[in-house]
Amino acid sequence: MALTAALKAQIAAWYKALQEQIPDFIPRAPQRQMIADVAKTLAGEEGRHLAIEAPTGVGKTLSYLIPGIAIAREEQKTLVVSTANVALQDQIFSKDLPLLRKIIPDLRFTAAFWPRALRVSAKPGGAGQ
């Protein structure tokens, strides 16, 4: 899929609208770069894998959700986000996605929270059978 000018404009417009929703928002070059890198990766322009490391509070989650949602819509696909911890799940579901819904009014999302005690066993008759 090509990262078209229209898709780039949509991502930029959502990022600008996001800035207006967050008091004292400070646009950061690394955040804009991350949005661009995620968009290019999801569009298939720069390989299939992307690793990003940044301190807490930089805006990583919103920086992958914005291009992820835009590209998923363009391709008429579902965006799935998986996290390693419950705190990030809660942040995404109760803070980030409702915030994005303010700038993307028809945004729909659901969540599946798995209990930490869930265990899967490959043994016959084990958990998950």
From TrEMBL:
One Pfam family matching this protein: DEAD
InterPro entries with a match to the protein in the record: DEAD/DEAH_box_helicase_dom, Helic_SF1/SF2_ATP-bd_DinG/Rad3, P-loop_NTPase
Listed SUPFAM superfamilies: P-loop containing nucleoside triphosphate hydrolases
Keyword line: ATP-binding, Helicase, Hydrolase, Nucleotide-binding
Keyword tRNA-binding (UniProt): no
GO terms for MF: ATP binding; helicase activity; hydrolase activity; nucleic acid binding
Domain Helicase ATP-binding: from-to ranges: 17-129
Source organism, top-level taxon: Bacteria
Ranges in coiled-coil conformation: none
Keyword Cytoplasm listed: no
The name this protein goes by in its record: ATP-dependent helicase
Lineage: Bacteria, Pseudomonadati, Pseudomonadota, Gammaproteobacteria, Enterobacterales
Name of the coding gene: dinG_5
